[in-house]
What we know:
Its EC number is 2.4.2.21. The protein has helices spanning 3-15, 25-38, 70-81, 85-93, 134-149, 165-177, 193-207, 216-223, 226-240, 250-262, 279-287, 304-322, 326-329, and strands at residues 48-55, 96-103, 114-116, 155-161, 244-247, 270-272.
Amino acid sequence: MLQTDFQSLIQKAIDSKTKPVGSLGRIEALAAQLARIQNTLMPVAASCGLTLFAGDHGMALAGVSAYPQAVTRQMVMNFLGGGAAANVFARTLGVDVEVVDCGVAGEPINAPSLLSRRLGAGTANAIERPAMTAVELDKALANGRAIGGDSDHDTACFGEMGIGNTSSASLVAAKILGYPVADLVGRGTGLADDGLKRKQALLEAAAGRTPDSLPADHALMEYGGFEIATMTGAMTAAAGAGRVVLVDGFIATVAALCARELSPGCAANFVYAHRSAEAGHARVLEALAAKPLLDLDMRLGEGTGALLAWPLVQAAAAMLRDMASFESAGVSGPA
Length: 335
Ligand SMILES: O=C(O)c1ccc[n+]([C@@H]2O[C@H](COP(=O)([O-])O)[C@@H](O)[C@H]2O)c1
Ligand SMILES: Cc1cc2nc[nH]c2cc1C
């Protein structure tokens, strides 16, 4: 069937439901997207998994974050213990959580429930040199594809943890979009004014090492993080496998931007969950013409925004699948 014909069938199905035309607002657009992704007028949103990608950044040691690098590792232990915001939200929603070490600083973490896909003990300091090699990038993308492609869930939430990764994400996005990095720098975990100034100067120095504009793979190699690159691969494969991908905050949206550049078809499966309070997020969303579902002033990461959007995905699918039509319920249509 032609795409336009299927789109008009979807619209007809949505408009036949017992509600004034258009009255469920953006839930209707979301339902239509789910129908397109699953190629059915009976979309299913039955199960969702959260994969948390953790990695460290050489840049963090230059002082671009309000928190020390050690927090990445400590938070991985917290995820494994079930005590982080992402765990708590996931439990309330019945979502499974898996944690991936993509390259946390220090010795490998020895925990049976942790998936080890380490590319090293953190990236190189991208202020001075490329964050990773082409071989490391390829491996991270491949690791991500294997993780994103292997799941029983119809919906995937991807979250990240990495002290310094707002710096990495700002630089990657600036190079892909051809924006000055200053337009995309924010307070991250909560830098005060003097810290923000220092971060801005360091990121401008980092950006100055390379041309104003870079393709996504070069941008990732120069400025990316192991967790961001692994998430990028996971997003392409999850979308390729027909899953709905709930895109979290600033860092996850930059991974989605990379995924779209590397594998354009995957964008159709992306649902932008929320607008983070991190300064650059609104700009990157704008560049993607993406209107996220939620705006809760959150800026945590960990997939917390994506998790909170999961019930909306479930509601949208149930609306299209289960709501009565004017005809089946014997309700009069517009006069
Ligand atoms: O998701 C977001 O929009 C977001 C915005 C600001 C900070 N974060 C989280 O905070 C960490 C990065 O902040 P920073 O200041 O260390 O670059 C990293 O672990 C992210 O998960 C996440
Ligand atoms: C405590 C803490 C938890 C986080 N979760 C994601 N990024 C984080 C950064 C910090 C500092």
